[in-house]
């Protein structure tokens, strides 16, 4: 098992637009395993690479017993909306109602470079949208109305984890991935 530290709100990597994956190699498969192991141990419904400090367009999910991952996702959203509770492993303990599309069709690739399409509604749709937002530097509290966002920011400032130091990152000259020390 390879559980990594999850980056918390305030870490700059969470606000950066992640880069497309171009190499479907062993390092990518290791990243998907690290994401899966960390998400499962947390436990969470999804985890995006930036949450581990890796600025690449890949995420994992586990919803209704279905475990999956998606590389370089491209989403098509339904017009129908849902409003429901949402949380984030980078904002531990915080949950707020957030509007999302009711359904999604996500096209992308597996860790082996094979094309894949994932269709989902309700929780799976919410999870795929949430994780794809992470790849674009968007955190779910950005989607809250002004009053809820103000409440969320106050809760973040008061949270026990607020102001935690960012893990040190070592970048290998042979790797495009950052590894937490």
Structural description of this entry:
This protein is α+β, with helices and mostly antiparallel strands and 181 residues long. The chain has one domain: Alpha-Beta Complex (Peptide Deformylase), CATH 3.90.45. Helix content is 24%, strand content 33%. It contains three helices and nine strands. The strands form three sheets. It has a five-stranded antiparallel sheet, with helices on both faces. It is globular and about 45 Å long. The two termini are 16 Å apart. The C terminus is likely disordered.
Can you describe this structure in just a few lines?
The chain has 181 residues and is α+β, with helices and mostly antiparallel strands. The chain is built from three helices and nine strands.
What is the second-level CATH architecture?
Alpha-Beta Complex
Distance N terminus to C terminus?
A: 16 Å
The strand count comes to 9
User: Residue ranges: pLDDT <50 for 5 or more in a row?
Assistant: 168-181
Largest β sheet strand count, sense and barrel closure: 5 strands, antiparallel
Mean pLDDT: 90
H-E order: HEEEEEEEHHEE
Q: Tell the overall outline.
A: globular
Indicate the proportion of strand residues: 25-35%
Number of helices: 3
SS content category: alpha+beta
User: What is the gyration radius calculated from CA atoms?
Assistant: 16 Å
The CATH class is: Alpha Beta
CATH topology annotation:
Peptide Deformylase
**Helicity level:** 10-25%
Please give the domain count.
1
Can you list the strand order of the major beta sheet? 1-2-3-6-7
InterPro entries: Peptide_deformylase, Peptide_deformylase_sf
Keywords: Hydrolase, Iron, Metal-binding, Protein biosynthesis
Cofactor: Fe(2+)
Protein name: Peptide deformylase
């Amino acid at each position: 098992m390879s559980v990594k530290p999850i980056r918390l709100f305030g870490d700059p990597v969470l606000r950066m637009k992640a880069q497309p994956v171009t190499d479907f190699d062993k390092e990518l498969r290791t990243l998907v395993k690290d994401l899966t192991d960390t998400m499962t141990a947390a436990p969470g419904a999804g985890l995006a690479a930036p949450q581990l400090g890796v600025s690449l367009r890949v995420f994992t999910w586990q919803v209704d017993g279905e475990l999956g991952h998606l590389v370089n996702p491209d989403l098509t959203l339904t017009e129908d909306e849902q409003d429901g509770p949402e949380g984030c492993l980078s904002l531990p303990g915080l949950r707020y109602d957030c509007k999302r599309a009711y359904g999604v069709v996500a096209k992308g690739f597996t860790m082996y470079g094979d094309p894949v399409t994932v269709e989902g509604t309700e929780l799976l749709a919410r999870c795929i949208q949430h994780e794809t937002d992470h790849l674009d530097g968007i955190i779910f509290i950005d989607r809250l109305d002004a009053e809820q966002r103000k409440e969320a920011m106050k809760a973040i400032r008061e949270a026990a984890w607020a102001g935690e130091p960012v893990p040190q990152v070592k970048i290998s000259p042979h790797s495009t991935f950052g590894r937490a020390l």
